[in-house]
Amino acid sequence: MIIKDFRKILHGGDYNPDQWIHVPGTVDRDFELMDEAHCNTFSVAIFSWSQLEVEPDHFEFGWLDDVFERCAKSGKKLFLATPSASKPAWLAERWPDSRRADRAGHRDIQGSRQNSCFSSPGFRERVRIVDRKLAERYAKHPALGGWHISNEYHGECGCDLCRSRFHDFLRKRYGTLEKLNQAYWSAFWGHRFTDWRQVEPFDSSMDGAALDWWRFCTEVIVDFFRMEIDAVREFSDAPVTTNLMGLFPTLDYWKFAPLCDFISDDCYPTWYAGEAEREGASVSFRHDMHYSMRNKPFLVMESCPGIPNMMPYTKLRRPGEFEREMLLALGHGADGTMYFQWRKGRNNCEKFHGAVVGHDGSDRTMVFRRVASYGEKLERLSGLVDAVREPVAAVIYDWESNWALRESHFAGGNEIKKWDETIQNHYRALWNSNIDLAVIDSEQDFSRYKLLVLPMLFLFKPGVVERLRRFVEAGGTVVGTYFTGYVDECNNCQAGGNPGGEAGRDLFGVWSEDFDGLEPAARQSLVWNGKRYPVMDYAEILHPEGSAVEAVYGEDFYAGTPAVTFRKLGQGRAVYIGARTGMDFLNDFYGALIKKIGIDPVLPGVPDSVRAARRFAVDGGSYYFLYNLSKEAQTVKLPRKMCAVWEDGADVDSVTLSSDGATVLFAAGEARG
Ligand code: GLA
Ligand code: ZN
Questions:
Q1: Number of Cβ atoms within 10 Å of the Cβ of 329
Q2: 393-597, CATH topology level
Q3: Which residue is catalytic, options 156, 228, 302, 321?
Q4: Distance 159 CA to ligand 2 centre (A)
């Protein structure tokens, strides 16, 4: 259970009553509406530091005490935030080094949020003080459900303190300048260092230094997160989390996960026309990662019940889309979905961001009615709490590979590398087959899966290739692609060739001699099982070294040479895909591969535009989730009778999903695989 002894699917959102103190009656009305919307959990005080500590050491807790009391009386729980995301003006004035500096060392203004320097001693100390005050006051309160540490941590700072911490980080990592010079290949352009302080954090001409900078930024923030956790832990043992931002590019969230008692995420899909399948796969991908991070249920901390205002088009959710989005999260392992935010503020950057309650305070809006109806149905799902998943295949997502690739200079730049998109496309092809998936990093245990996919795993961390080999020899299947294992952890290219140096070449049984970067007008294809599929952006020139050829190139001077290879090794197989293809090839290829390996869908026989997910309940039986990605109604014939828990609770052997619809079924007596 995310919140101790609170066996409910969590439902609620960010609640900012401190913005409404001057409007009498608002909080009374909020609590009526919260019950009407079947909400049970709220996050409070995220941006409230200046309303709690109005002057240094002058605290005013009245409004927050009131919210705690009301929640305790009405059986609701609170995730109390530490307010470090947004420092008060008095703090920035008295401790100017709390303001973050840019890469040129210029300090930021006080405004906005999430822009403090994580190294500033004054800022750290004031955060510790306010965190301890909050923890001391509310630790034992019955309404406290957990700690929402800060908000969407991120950012880099170029102040002198941060620079010198970066140099300390390098000293610890490399020990001697000699080692650093070697790791950075610093003789290139004559950059040899004779003092740690000479290393520029932002010299993007040094691919290894740039990679270390991103590692360092994660370490600084994780260290700050740990400091905040320690502050609340002095008084409280309630669970802690910090809200992640999915695939946010510059933080390695795998390093945050061990500090979180439960993972939480802010998730804002768009559902623009024609994108249901891509967007559905993309949100499932992040949910699967969040389940995989702790191997247990997570929480969607923020989602938008109306119009997310930061997107290119502020499109209203079409009927069905909102509930399908929420059920995608629950089906993929969430034990709750919450909103940003409960009530729309009347001014500033987010005044038009969809909230449960609008500016008019009405409960008659479409958004409010949808939320209330979803909340009511959630009350039938308390048996889902703690239900587990059993992923059989995993896709690897390592932030360090992304950084190494981004910081590696070559033609086309990051627009064409499309690292994120490529990984998600491989995942999407597997997701289209309705199998239970994990998204892991390369440091996790591989042995529980039958299939491991490493799209563009550009950087091989130490030991990974050996662990992959053991996985294959023991019967697993590995799929690598172009740009797999090109560099080591310093961003140095492999001396033993690609993919992955001698050990990687031996694992895949293939030598990738070079890659051909394809401009849009270039025509290339691969031919697999007699069918021709378009190839774009990249095609590697491959030479089998013990592997069989699965597919060949169709055009140009390397027509007829290998494009996909397949090696049997021990009890398993290693497949190498040398070129970027569209979804047509990936869908066909993975569809065939999982059949060959013997991986079954969680539910057989669902229509093409329907996806399925499954969770095993702790008390036995399983929950099946069905999602219609189309605008037409879809009927799903079930392999056996199941209880339509999301509808009227009848036993059914088929269900019809409306346009963009989704549902949940319960099959009693099913044992875990
Ligand atoms: C983020 C933040 C929230 C809010 C929403 C608006 O997820 O955490 O404070 O700004 O975005 O979309
Ligand atoms: Zn700084």
A1: 24
A2: Rossmann fold (3.40.50)
A3: 302
A4: 4
Task: Summarize pLDDT for 580-591 with one digit per residue, the tens.
Answer: 999 999 999 999
Give every strand in the sheet of 622-628, ordered side by side.
610-616, 622-628, 662-667, 634-643, 651-657
Q: Determine the residue of 114, 151, 267, 352 to mutate for testing ligand 1's pocket, defined as the one with the most ligand atoms within 8 A of the Cβ atom.
A: 151
Residue 546 and residue 451 in contact, taking contact as beta carbons nearer than 8 Å? no
Ligand 1: which of 266, 270, 341, 352 to mutate, judged by most atoms within 8 Å of the beta carbon? 266
One-letter identity of residue 437: L
What is this structure's pTM? 0.98
> Distance of CA 146 to CAs 41, 81, 152, 246, 334, Å?
10, 9, 17, 21, 16
19 DSSP 8-state letter: G
Contact indicator for 586, 598 with CB cutoff of 8 Å: no
Atom of ligand 1 nearest to the CA of 266: 7
Gap between the Cα atoms of 592 and 634, Å rounded: 25
What pLDDT does residue 372 have? 98
Q: What is the largest CA-CA distance in the chain?
A: 76
Ligand 1 near 302 CB (within 6 A): yes
Residue 431 CA to residue 443 CA, distance in Å, equals 23
The token pair at 56 is 């240094």
Q: Residue 375 CA to chain centroid, in angstroms?
A: 24
How far, in Å, CA of 10 to CA of 298, rounded? Answer: 10
- CB contact at 8 A, 345 and 351: yes
pLDDT digits (tens, 9 = 90+) for 57-102: 999 999 999 999 999 999 999 999 999 999 999 999 999 999 999 9
Q: What is the residue extent of each domain of the chain?
A: 10-157+218-384, 393-597, 610-667
Give the closest residue (by CA) to ligand 1 atom 7.
266
Residue 673, pLDDT > 80, answer no
Structural tokens at position 567: 């090696």
Evaluate whether 385 touches 8 at the Cβ level (below 8 Å). yes
Summarised one tens digit per residue, pLDDT across range 420-429 is: 999 999 999 9
Active site residue 390: no
Contacts of 156 (CB under 8 A, 6+ apart): 103, 162, 213, 217, 250
CA angle 154, 459, 570 (to 5 degrees): 135
Cα–ligand 2 centroid distance for 561 (angstroms): 53
Per CATH, is 610-667 categorized as 3.40.50.300? no
> Domain 10-157+218-384 belongs to what topology?
TIM Barrel (3.20.20)
Backbone angles phi, psi at 358, to 5 degrees: -85, -175
509-540 pLDDT, tens digit each: 999 999 999 999 999 999 999 999 999 999 99
Backbone φ, ψ for residue 398 (5° rounding): -115, 115
DSSP string, 624-656: EEEEE-SSS-EEEEEEEEEE-TTTT--EEEEEE
| Nearest atom, ligand 1, residue 47 CA | 9
